[in-house]
Amino acid sequence: MTKIELKDIILSNQNAYCQEKIFKKNFPEVYNIICSITFPNDFKFKQKLYHYIEDDINLSLGKCVVCGNRCRFVSFKEGYKLHCTRKCIQQDNIVKNKVLNTWMNKSDDDIKQFSKHQSESMLNVMKNRSDEEKKSIRKKGADTFKMKNKNDKDVIKLKKQNTWKSHTEKEKIEYSRKVSINSSNMWKGFSQEKKEKVCKNISIATLNSTAHKNIWYNLSDEQKKLKIEKDIQTKRKNNTFNTSKIEDDVADWLKNNQIDFYRQYNLDNRYPFLCDFYLPKYDLFIEIQGNWTHGKHPFNPDNIKDKELLEFMKSKKSKYYERSVYVWSIRDVKKRTIAKENNINYLEIFSIDLQICVDMILDKLKKLS
Prior knowledge:
It contains 18 helices and 6 strands. It is of the alpha+beta class and 369 residues long.
């Protein structure tokens, strides 16, 4: 009897013939051959039978098409799943193209209707959950994101940025308007107890909403200081500070050269700001002014070109330029002044070139040695 004929017999009643006792009774010689083959300990008999019939003693079948791990065995007739996890399904280019083609063939009305249905379904599901379940779901989501490596987080961040860029200016304005209205309405519907609870747990990172801005403005200077400090401690604990590539490169260089350092350091009253790097051995504070908002050099109010550039930036009706005006001409000047008044070892680097940063740091360390 050939394997093809045996396969047809098994498929005629696989519920019976895939059971080890029945198969052994009807096909004792084949059973002995299967038993002589070495399979993993967790393989069931029908799984072994499947590999034998398919001439796959090397177990090349049943591996994930994306990562190569062993997939779940379904049945003798169907064999294995193509993917080992949902994540691999989402990363499979064939699946991606199928999903994309499906969406491309849908009309705008179909897409809007589907999105609306998904949102309503999610809201209904969450409404029926207890407060404890909601808290558990939020925690699980946060823990999952923390477990992702930096590359995964960067991909997610890039996808969000690209999605936002793909919207027209009109869509962006409409979205911002809806968010603002929803936040205000939500805040108005809160009880006094709920408002106090939100006020207690407010994060500086959420100050983009109208509701949270109202809370922030009503806090005393001492309360604001405590909130900022709490945010810093949380970011330090979770390692979620927003850092630039040049800062990461400098950190790698310091590690490779066995130079002790702290990142985002603010535990010294002589310099009460978040400092990019602090080198305890040299008592050195380093600020990498790589972002364009810091300018190409320290702001000088007596310099004509600096004053002209500042006026030009002020004339631009953009939040990015407003931010740059504040950082370059006010905040950085204040930091510089305090560093000078307290006579600390202070180094500013206006570059995103690693070699320039390294040379300046080495030159400073040589002077301090």
